[in-house]
Design a protein that fits this description.
The chain is mainly alpha-helical and 375 residues long. It has helices spanning 41-63, 71-78, 84-119, 131-145, 158-178, 186-210, 213-224, 232-251, 253-258, 263-268, 273-295, 301-313, 320-340, 349-371, and strands at 21-24, 27-32, 35-39. It has a single domain, classed as Orthogonal Bundle (ABC transporter involved in vitamin B12 uptake, BtuC), CATH 1.10.3470. A three-stranded antiparallel beta sheet has the order 1-2-3, with no helix packed on it. A hairpin with a 2-residue loop joins strand 1 (21-24) and strand 2. Helix 3 (84-119) runs parallel beside helix 8.
């Protein structure tokens, strides 16, 4: 991405003198005194376009629904100048849902980029390799054992804690089991993760079978993956996690980029591979856990967002910030479809992402098999 530094550019292409710009194959190199770098205009253009789509998705989420509200009335409601009915629908009902969808989608997109970059495997999504399943098992355990009254809304603090502990335990187990001969490979990581995913799904089913019907029904609503009924407290948890973790990830952008090379190359370039992988892995687990705690295990957003972002930007590596924005756009779009296609009946957003994501996963598996990158 744009974090590529001047020293990564071949010496022959560097500017002849400090303080000058140069252009080369979609890149603009610059140096002013001791500071230099390389910018990629296409990456920034794609990021701006995706942000515009996200903004449009938020406006559509606030405006469209069983009671359509014109955009000018949406703006009036947000600024406190609208009618009481418009304020109730826009501010109290639709705004927290839209914010939760935006932040959860962003967290899933960032988590997917981290996992796929660290394992160098496009199938290494947290919702396929057991991390989200660990968060689900932890969240269900918190709902069943923690006395949560309404799928996380009443006693919401226990759900993210349970989800985070479950995701950390699952990721730690996968990492230990995949670690062999001083390193891990993406293929082994994915295989171990698939096994852990199946085991944790069985554990979740056993927990539901042991619960009474009211507790099981509350947990099943959360497990479906839905933004229905989400409030500002759900958006607040995910927003707080992003506020902490995104600056950390921006500060670790160079280790993130180098981690996408093989281990030997990354070590030669100065990256402490194991330490960097552990820090980035913990960040990815935290993002997947809080996103799952807020909206349930919404499938395929974390899988698809990084690959879509990479193809849009034309990058060889996975663009981290664009992946997060694409994830937000995907979840907002899926939630709009879930609300509008069968209106007045609303589908859980996880049903829409699963319906669209399953063919995408099959295509990805076939493509990886043809390319020989699936293992």
């Amino acid at each position: 991405m744009t974090g590529l530094r001047l020293r990564d550019v071949p010496v022959a292409r560097r500017p002849a003198r400090p303080g000058r710009l140069y252009r080369s194959a979609g890149r603009i190199g610059w140096q002013f005194g001791p500071v230099g770098g390389v910018l990629r205009p296409r990456v920034w253009a794609v990021l701006a376009a995706v942000l515009a789509v996200v903004a449009g998705g938020v406006v559509a989420s606030l405006s469209l629904g069983e009671f359509p509200i014109p955009v000018r009335d949406v703006v009036a409601a947000l600024t406190g100048a609208g009618s009481a009915d418009a304020a109730l629908i826009v501010v109290e009902l639709r705004l927290p849902r839209a914010l939760t969808g935006l932040l959860v989608g962003c967290a899933f997109g960032l988590a997917g980029a981290l996992f796929q970059a660290l394992t160098r495997n496009p199938l290494a999504s947290p919702d396929l390799i057991g991390v989200s399943a660990g968060a689900s098992a932890g969240g269900v355990g918190a709902i069943l054992l923690g006395g949560v009254a309404a799928a996380g809304a009443g006693s919401y603090a226990v759900v993210p804690v349970g989800a985070l502990l479950g995701a950390l335990a699952a990721a730690g187990f996968i990492y230990v089991m995949a670690f062999r001969a001083g390193t891990i490979t993406g293929y082994r990581f994915v295989l171990v993760g698939l096994g852990v995913h199946g085991a944790l799904q069985a554990l979740t089913a056993w927990l539901l079978a042991r619960a009474d019907i009211d507790q099981a029904s509350r947990a099943m609503v959360w497990l479906t993956g839905s933004l229905n009924g989400r409030g500002f407290e759900h958006a607040g948890w995910v927003g707080l996690a992003l506020l902490v973790l995104v600056p950390v990830m921006v500060g670790l952008i160079r280790p993130y980029q180098l981690a996408q090379y093989d281990d030997d190359t990354a070590r030669v370039l100065g990256l402490p591979v194991d330490r960097a992988r552990m820090v980035l892995l913990v960040a990815g687990v935290g993002l997947a856990a809080v996103a799952t705690a807020a909206a349930g295990p919404v499938a395929f957003v974390a899988l698809a967002a990084p690959q879509i972002a990479r193809r849009l930007t034309g990058s060889a590596s996975l663009p981290i910030l664009t992946s997060g924005c694409v994830g937000a756009a995907l979840l907002l779009g899926a939630d709009l479809l879930a609300r509008l296609v069968f209106a007045p009946i609303e589908l859980p957003v996880g049903v829409v992402t699963g319906t669209v994501g399953a063919p995408y996963l099959m295509w990805l598996l076939a493509r990886a098999h043809r390319a020989g990158t699936g293992g």
